[in-house]
Amino acid sequence: MYNIFSHVLLITLFTFGTSSLETNKPIRHEGKQKQSTKLPQSPCDQFEIPNYDAYRIANTPTIDGKLEEKEWKLAPKSPNFRDLISGAETIHDTQAAVLWDDEYLYIAYWIEEPNLQASITKRDGLIYQNNDVELFIAGQDGYYEFEINSYGTIYEVFFLWEEAYKKGGYDTMKNLGLNEPGRRMFNGVGYRSHPRGPRIGFWNWDLEGLKTAVSVDGTVNNDKDRDRGWTVELALPWSSLAILAKGDNRSVPPQAKDIWRMDFSRFNQYKEAEPAKDSGGWAWSPHGIWDSHVPECFTYINFSKADVSSLKK
Predict the structure, then answer these.
(1) How far is CA 108 from the centre of its chain?
(2) Do residues 199 and 162 make contact, with C-beta atoms less than 8 angstroms apart?
(3) pTM exceeds 0.85 for this model
(4) pLDDT tens readout for residues 4-36
């Protein structure tokens, strides 16, 4: 039987961002009519996925990690991240914000952390083994993963759904060939029954033109003082993100009211003491499972043509 729940599933499984609001907007129910859509094929409740309006900027920010420009002060911040699995409140604050112009997508994180710790300094080292923040950006045929620690060390991977790899012509593209170094199969972390099947990961792939910066308020790896935390600032060129628009021919840069799917998370090597049920992973949009690689659970980013200056506080 075709009903609203199967409609939600079809939307979330196969359209992770398009220029058509009719095919990618989240379905909303209000009041007593709201029902759970936590289907076996989707570990998160589709009605609980956040929506966010990303505003344009006229002035290019300096990517220094400090987030002192007026644009970042005006940008709407996300709610505090919640536990990745349970959705419970977390012991420390974490927020993110999104801005954009015709050249770049800009991302910021504000991370409260009383004891800054990091150890990995080699690019594409296993950053998730440190305390980190992460960004995923999804297209129809694949998604991009980015991680960074408080040293500013980064990790990148590009994933394509196996069923779309040859059909979409990705196998003939630069750095995505069949014999590309760092290419290997991937079937999720905790959610290994994804209805689209396995992915092909490219661990040597880099987002060309990416700009990143970290600013720390404290001292890393010093247990004798108390730190406030750290901030992260990213600029991702639309020209490089265009590969994510290939599957559904999305506009790059976005047009007004376009919607993309993005995931914002934080992973810690410590957990809040019992009786708290802290998984160690926190996210803007909880997934209901220990796995970030579920695009159906990513936040809806709605692109507005309005300038962020219109939000004067």
Answers:
(1) 11
(2) yes
(3) yes
(4) 333 334 344 434 444 333 333 443 333 333 444
